[in-house]
Design brief:
By secondary structure, the chain is an alpha/beta fold. It contains 16 helices and 16 strands. The strands form three sheets. It has an eight-stranded mixed beta sheet, with helices on both faces. Helix 1 crosses helix 16. The two termini are 28 Å apart. The relative contact order is 0.11.
Length: 404
């Protein structure tokens, strides 16, 4: 039920809780900030569920005083009719957005997915801000995802060009474009004509959830999660695709004797990683945790966070690692040719840069840092997250568009 004197805001994307990821995380925090500001908040997302075990997701429900509406993307159709499922999903999305428009009449719409941006425009919603999660043309190129062959590769390219086209339409239909980094802003401008003003904003991080713990508690967490207590723990978090560069961390382990890697996530490159581990006899040096709803304990029990991505629009995981006072190890963009926004988040003295794109280079730089070398970096890390990144500030920047 909508309170008459409350302003309404709509946040939309393709996935939300119980799915996990940076985009889902941003939806959650923006929704709760706007709710605390007195807005009626609606979230429109699909009923896709990549969690395990899978849940039966209701078409609509209220969670934490936020109205959740799910459009259907799961259809049990005969094989020859499966291509039509995308059109059925479009119809469901259109109807769901139309319903929310009628019931809530949102003053502003924040979309984090290209398809929901397009359909928000088609149903007549006003003041649509497309908060771009990444530029498909660069981020989702098949060469950055996995090594597929034959028909699978053809399907991958068809999907890629299809989503590149849809995102180009989203850029066109949105009333305002917003991005998290100058790097992403440059890429968006390369994809749109005529050019548009683009709002540069920063995400936030939940400091109450992500925080450092004492060494005693760290070792307790390691024991609980079956992580070696007597090793230096490296942490990598993200989707298992080539763009995340996790293969470089695995390669580094060949040259590191007293280290153990914790990989949090899942994805199509998992087989490649496990085959590499088997071929190089690294089984005792790696722990796979699978995708995690709440990865905070893995940050807290670790000694280094490795941002190994070769493409990354921003890097929410960097902010979470900083909040837990972890030193950040990352490839230097200018020296290695990677496309990331690490230098926009951290100054040169706040990150441990690797200047060659190789696992050996990672191993060299990590092993050169003693406990004393790291203490200064660790002491600054949480203050950086606290002072520079805020969900409240992001909400205010987006909210300011509502009055224009």
């Amino acid at each position: 039920m909508i309170e008459k004197n409350k302003k309404s805001i709509l946040i939309t994307s393709n996935a939300y809780y119980p799915n996990v990821g940076g985009i889902e995380n941003s939806l959650y925090h923006l929704a709760h900030v706007f709710n605390q500001k007195g807005y009626n908040v609606d979230i429109v997302i699909s009923n896709i569920d990549n969690s395990f075990p899978k849940n039966k997701l209701a078409p609509s429900e209220k969670i934490d005083d936020i109205n959740i509406h799910r459009y259907n993307v799961v259809y049990k159709l005969p094989f020859f009719l499966k291509p039509f499922s995308v059109f059925l999903s479009f119809i469901s999305l259109y109807k769901t957005l139309k319903k929310v428009k009628k019931i809530s009449a949102p003053e502003i719409t924040i979309s984090r997915f290209h398809t929901t941006t397009i359909f928000s425009k088609l149903v007549g919603l006003k003041k649509i801000i497309y908060l771009v999660p990444g530029v498909v043309k660069y981020q989702n190129h098949p060469n950055k995802l996995s090594n597929k062959h034959g028909l699978s590769k053809v399907k991958q390219y068809i999907s890629y060009y299809y989503h590149v086209y849809l995102q180009s339409k989203a850029f066109q239909y949105a009333d305002k474009l917003a991005v998290f980094s100058q790097n992403m802003k440059t890429q968006v401008l390369e994809c749109i004509s005529p050019k548009k003003d683009i709002l540069l904003v920063k995400p936030g991080v939940d400091l109450k959830k992500f925080y450092p713990i004492s060494d005693n508690k760290k070792f307790t967490l390691r024991k609980k999660n079956l992580i070696p207590e007597d090793k230096i723990i490296l942490l990598g978090i993200g989707r298992f695709v080539k763009a995340k560069g996790f293969i470089y961390i695995l390669e580094a382990l060949k040259y590191l004797d007293n280290y153990h890697l914790v990989l949090v996530g899942s994805g199509e490159e998992e087989y490649t990683y496990k085959k590499f581990i088997e071929d190089n006899k690294l089984q005792e040096k790696v722990t796979f945790t699978g995708a995690q709803q709440n990865p905070v304990e893995y940050y807290q029990l670790s000694d280094f966070f490795i941002m190994s991505s070769i493409y990354e629009p921003l890097g929410q995981t960097i902010l979470e690692a900083l909040s837990c006072s972890l030193p950040i190890v990352a490839f230097h963009a200018n020296e290695t040719g990677v496309t990331t926004a690490t230098s926009e988040i951290l100054r040169d003295d706040e990150v441990i840069y690797v200047k060659k794109l190789s696992g050996y280079a990672i191993s060299e730089i990590i092993s050169s840092y003693s406990h004393m070398n790291l203490s200064n970096i660790k002491s600054k890390a949480r203050n950086i997250a606290q002072e520079r990144f805020s969900w409240e500030r992001l909400a205010e920047n987006l909210q300011s568009y509502e009055s224009k």
